[in-house]
Design a protein that fits this description.
single chain, mainly alpha, globular
Length: 227
């Protein structure tokens, strides 16, 4: 099968029907991304403190939605059309590990150009029940591949958050994303996720990621001790 060539045509139709569940997911996602964006400028201690404020941030965003008939819109129409085009093309792709697809080819550039606007929609898609798990997992894996220091803390937060999503396929994708991100600070979250993981294969995969990050941490400590 020949994969259809992707073009970010801004004329692509964007679905306008939203269910209550989708709005609720976007509420949680917007609250999460506000915290995630704060992480990019925080110290390690400050980052962990931000996690404690999720509940109040969620209430704040929920209050904003209840007072507005249009909700919170972060992306420009052009950026939203490009984002939706990527996801639409991904739904027609055959998603396989190691094979290029619309997400791997076009999402990095979109994130690089407009990270602050793209991430709320990205997190909402990953958490949305209507998103195919294969696509959500691919989004998470791609987040881990990025090497931008500006977006690192925010991407780390999204990946850690995805470890608690109901789909084991998506949780596995979050683990692979964290493996690619190669940040040992995720180890405590991975350990907690592995302890609570009901799926045996996913639990084993998460443990492999923990082992890999522990090796990275040990190597870093060894290098630091030599200086």
């Amino acid at each position: 099968m020949t994969r259809q060539e992707f073009t970010a045509d801004t004329s692509i139709a964007v679905p306008t029907t939203e269910t209550r569940g989708e709005i609720g997911g976007l509420v949680r996602s917007m609250a999460g991304i506000i915290l995630g964006l704060r992480l990019a400028a925080a110290s390690t201690d400050g980052i962990r403190q931000c996690f404690l404020e999720q509940s109040s941030a969620t209430q704040l965003i929920a209050g904003t939605f209840s007072q507005s008939s249009t909700g919170i819109r972060e992306m420009t129409p052009e950026t939203k059309a490009k984002f939706d085009a990527i996801l639409d093309a991904a739904r027609r792709d055959i998603i396989e590990d190691g094979m290029p697809n619309a997400i791997t080819e076009h999402l990095p550039g979109l994130i690089e150009r407009d990270f602050n606007a793209v991430m709320p929609a990205l997190l909402s898609m990953i958490e949305g029940a209507s998103t195919p798990p294969a696509i959500a997992a691919e989004l998470l894996k791609e987040l881990g591949k990025e090497r931008s220091t500006v977006s690192h803390a925010g991407r780390l937060w999204v990946l850690e958050r995805a470890l608690s999503i109901s789909s084991p396929f998506i949780r596995d994708g979050a683990g692979l994303g964290l493996a690619r991100l190669a940040d040992p600070s995720a180890i405590p979250y991975l350990r907690r996720a592995a302890e609570d993981e009901p799926n045996a294969q996913t639990r084993a995969d998460l443990q492999l990621v923990i082992n890999e990050l522990e090796e990275i941490s040990a190597d870093g400590a060894l290098v630091a001790s030599r200086h």
